[in-house]
């Protein structure tokens, strides 16, 4: 696994001016809207921020999650390498009237004392850092013994992606013209590592004791799935998505997003 991380990480450099403007497609189908909303909800529910808790959001982006945690009375620090995203975060924080500290830095070198934080959150950012294993190690180091880490990543071995690859393979065999655009199951250029359920769980177990694994959403990336849902009445589409999400929560190895809640491993005496 270390060799895999090294090979993938060496291919990329961290973009210190990264902007998320192109992350969400111009046309947002119901499955995409649902996936992002549920990922936020499940992550924040797993965090369960409480007044006075010191919480670090690693790769905080626009500070959207940080603001929600600050509303609960938590003392939130957002760490973000991109100066562009820090500017977005400052605007979001100001618009919501919340207190949230921002630090420009990378997950591989967290500028905090050991065992000083109650919780660490990393949602959708771990596969953007050059050395995800070191980020994990750093997050474990800054957590108090009774602290918790909540980490969410995209599952590139999801059921939707697997079926999508099969459909596209069949189309190619039947002579259909290949598309030039990047398909959802292909790793984006700004990702340094390809995560799936098994790899994510294995990496997490190296530094933490896993307490809970939750899957979020099902079938994202399956060809024409979002388009089909957009043709359905909104209530019907939402009912289908909610039903599939319940299945995903029990079968995280097939889900679109995997959220892990964990705690530091006890020190060896």
Please give a structural write-up.
The protein has helices at residues 2-10, 30-47, 64-71, 83-96, 132-142, 159-173, 197-207, 225-231, 234-250; strands at residues 54-58, 75-79, 101-103, 117-123, 143-154, 208-216, 257-264. The protein is of the alpha/beta class. The chain has a single domain (2-264), classed as Vaccinia Virus protein VP39 (Rossmann fold, 3-Layer(aba) Sandwich), CATH 3.40.50.150. Strand 4, helix 5 (132-142) and strand 5 form a beta-alpha-beta unit. The longest helix is centred in the N-terminal third of the chain and has 18 residues, at 30-47.
Layout of helices and strands:
Layout: H1 2-10, H2 30-47, E1 54-58, H3 64-71, E2 75-79, H4 83-96, E3 101-103, E4 117-123, H5 132-142, E5 143-154, H6 159-173, H7 197-207, E6 208-216, H8 225-231, H9 234-250, E7 257-264
Gross geometry: globular
| Topology order in helix (H) and strand (E) letters | HHEHEHEEHEHHEHHE
Number of strands: 7
- The level of helicity is 40-55%
Q: Spatial order of the strands in the main sheet? A: 3-2-1-4-5-7-6
Q: Please name the CATH architecture.
A: 3-Layer(aba) Sandwich
- Largest sheet, described in full? 7 strands, mixed
Count of discrete alpha- or pi-helical segments spanning 4 or more residues: 9
* CATH level-1 class: Alpha Beta
Can you summarize this structure?
The chain is an alpha/beta fold and 269 residues long.
């Amino acid at each position: 696994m270390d060799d895999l991380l090294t090979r993938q990480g060496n291919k990329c450099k961290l973009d210190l001016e990264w902007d998320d403007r192109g992350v969400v497609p111009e046309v947002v189908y119901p499955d995409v809207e649902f996936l992002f909303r549920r990922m936020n909800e499940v992550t924040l529910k797993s965090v369960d921020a409480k007044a006075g808790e010191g919480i670090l959001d690693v790769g905080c982006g626009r500070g959207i999650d940080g603001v929600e945690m600050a509303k609960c009375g938590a003392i939130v620090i957002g760490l973000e390498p991109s100066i562009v995203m820090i500017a977005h975060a400052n605007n979001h924080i100001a618009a919501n009237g919340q207190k949230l500290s921002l630090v420009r830095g990378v997950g591989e070198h967290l500028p905090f004392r050991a065992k000083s934080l109650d919780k660490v959150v990393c949602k959708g950012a771990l596969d953007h850092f050059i050395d995800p294993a070191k980020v994990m190690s750093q997050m474990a180091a800054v957590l108090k013994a009774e602290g918790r880490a909540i980490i969410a990543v995209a599952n590139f071995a999801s059921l939707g992606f697997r079926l999508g690859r099969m459909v596209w393979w069949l189309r190619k065999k039947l002579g259909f013209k290949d598309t030039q655009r990047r398909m959802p199951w292909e790793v984006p250029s700004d990702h340094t590592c390809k995560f799936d359920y098994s790899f994510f769980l294995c990496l997490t177990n190296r530094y933490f004791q896993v307490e809970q694994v939750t899957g979020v959403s099902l079938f994202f990336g399956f060809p024409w799935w979002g388009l089909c849902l957009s043709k359905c009445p909104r209530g019907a589409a939402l009912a289908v998505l909610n039903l599939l999400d319940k299945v995903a929560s029990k079968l995280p190895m097939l889900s679109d997003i995997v959220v892990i809640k964990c705690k530091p491993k006890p020190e060896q005496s």
